[in-house]
Each structure stands twice: as structure tokens, then as C-alpha cells.
């Protein structure tokens, strides 16, 4: 689901995205699919595992007065190939249809038309 969230952000041109932004989109995906979500730290761990496989890549920056290291994520694979891979996962059957997003998170709200070839963001 973390990868799907990153794909959605990529389709909107919002990558590289901070872990918190990926996590907010991830939680929206889980809500839409009616699945349980995991913690932000675990999502970051999954994204790091995908980085080891060269599916994603990240850069880190220090946050200055906020302190700590901030991770910025983006896809490291072909967008369409990633969509085809996600489409082949049985657990995600039904995701590639019309998905309504009604959130208060800026930049995530809207309607997304997903299919195995691309994701089209339709802003509301």
C-alpha cells in the first residue's frame, strides 16, 4: 500500500515527497480499501526495503530547527511498469477503478481514475 501511495503522489507530480505525505496518502488508500493501516515508522521501513530493491529511492535532509532527518521519497522504476506490477497483485483487485478521495489533506483531495496503464488525477 505504501508503494501505491507513492504512485499516487508521483501521478500528481508531488514527488519527492516527505514520509509524512506518503503516510497520509497511504492511510487514505487503506481507508478506501477497508484495510488496517500500520504505523508511519513501519511504512518508512517498507519503503526502505523497496529502496534496497531499487523500486523506490530516497534522499535525506536535516530539518534545521525541527531537528532530525527527513526522508524524501520517489519512484525509481518506470511509472507504467510499476502500475502493471500493482495491477498483477490479487489483493489489490478493484483498486484500478474509480477511487473517491475526500480528505482534508492538501493536494490529495479529488477523484483519481486508476487503470493498469496510468493514473489520471481529476481535481475537485
Give a quick set of tags describing it:
three-stranded antiparallel beta sheet; 4 helices; 124 residues; 6 strands; alpha+beta; Arc Repressor Mutant, subunit A
Would you give an account of this structure?
The chain has 124 residues and is an alpha+beta fold. It has one domain (2-122): Arc Repressor Mutant, subunit A, CATH 1.10.10.10. Helix content is 38%, strand content 23%. It contains 4 helices and 6 strands. A 3-stranded antiparallel sheet has the order 1-3-2. Strands 4-5-6 form a 3-stranded antiparallel sheet, covered by helices on one side. The radius of gyration is 14 Å and the shape is globular.
Domain module tally: 1
Mean pLDDT: 76
Query: What is the H level of CATH, i.e. the homologous superfamily?
Result: Winged helix-like DNA-binding domain superfamily/Winged helix DNA-binding domain
Main pleated-sheet profile: 3 strands, antiparallel
Give the arrangement of secondary structure elements:
Elements: H1 2-11, E1 17-18, H2 19-33, H3 40-52, E2 56-62, E3 69-75, H4 79-87, E4 98-101, E5 110-114, E6 119-122
Antiparallel strand pairs: 1-3, 2-3, 4-5, 5-6
Outline:
The protein is an alpha+beta fold and 124 residues long.
Amino acid at each position: 500500500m505504501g508503494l501505491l501511495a507513492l504512485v499516487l503522489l508521483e501521478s500528481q507530480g508531488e514527488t519527492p515527497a516527505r514520509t509524512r505525505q506518503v503516510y497520509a496518502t497511504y492511510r487514505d488508500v487503506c481507508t478506501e480499501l477497508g484495510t488496517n493501516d500500520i504505523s508511519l515508522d513501519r511504512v518508512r521501513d517498507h519503503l526502505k526495503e523497496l529502496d534496497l530493491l531499487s523500486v523506490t529511492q530516497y534522499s535525506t535532509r536535516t530539518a534545521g530547527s525541527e531537528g532530525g532527518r527527513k526522508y524524501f521519497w520517489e519512484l525509481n522504476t518506470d511509472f507504467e511498469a510499476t502500475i502493471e506490477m500493482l495491477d498483477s497483485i490479487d489483493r489489490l483487485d478493484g483498486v484500478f477503478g474509480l477511487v473517491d478521495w475526500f480528505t482534508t489533506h492538501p493536494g490529495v483531495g479529488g477523484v483519481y481514475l486508476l487503470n493498469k496503464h496510468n493514473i489520471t488525477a481529476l481535481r475537485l
